Amino acid sequence: MGKEVMNETPVETASEQSLNEQPLVENENPHTDAQQIPVFGYDLIREYLLNEILGQDAAQLLYWGGKQLARKFPLHSVEDICVFFHSAGWGTLTQKKLSKDESIFELSGDGVSRRLSINEKCHFQLEAGFLAQQFELQKKVSSEAIEELKKRTSKVTFIVKWDPKDSIY
């Protein structure tokens, strides 16, 4: 029996063909892509791994991490912040109240319900820090945010406060 020689011509799959036909666009915004992240993978990292690694300081470190994310992704309006929350998979953020030195938000959605049900010590400090820093950047005054868990309704309330007299710029 002789050896068979296979023809080794490259074969492109349909998805490779369509990728090759699409022009590359500079400065594409990766945040607008509708990519799906497995919920289980997100939960593993957010609810288990980060808390394990960061230990008892997890909430405080994630708050400061949220502030750092806001510096990397500065937004120009409350509407932009709400869109960012949705795009990041953090849930549906709704502004409930706005006054001269305070804004109250409600975070809801399947992700919030899931997180509250799988981890009784669940916190939303990453989101709180992100909100605080966005207001600091937009209003140019010192801002802080606190969270209030509403486990019965599977919602989180964020109270963002700032001092109009405490300019930071």
Order of helices and strands: HHHHEEHHEE
Please identify the structural class as seen in this structure: alpha+beta
What is the CA–CA distance across the termini? 82 Å
Poorly predicted tracts of residues:
3-32
CATH classification class:
Alpha Beta
Rg estimate, integer Å:
22 Å
Average pLDDT metric: 84
How many β-strands, per DSSP?
A: 4
Pfam family, one: DUF2507
Biased composition (Polar residues): 10-21
Region (Disordered): 1-30
InterPro entries: DUF2507, NO_sig/Golgi_transp_ligand-bd
Tell me what you see in this structure.
Residues 10-21 have a biased composition (Polar residues). It comes from Peribacillus deserti. This protein is of the alpha+beta class and 169 residues long. Helix content is 43%, strand content 22%. The protein contains 6 helices and 4 strands; from the N terminus they run ααααββααββ. The protein has helices spanning 14-21, 39-54, 58-72, 78-87, 110-118, 125-139; strands at residues 92-98, 102-108, 141-150, 155-167. A 4-stranded antiparallel β-sheet has the order 1-2-4-3. α3 (58-72) packs parallel to α6. 20% of the residues are buried. Residues 3-32 have low confidence and may be disordered.
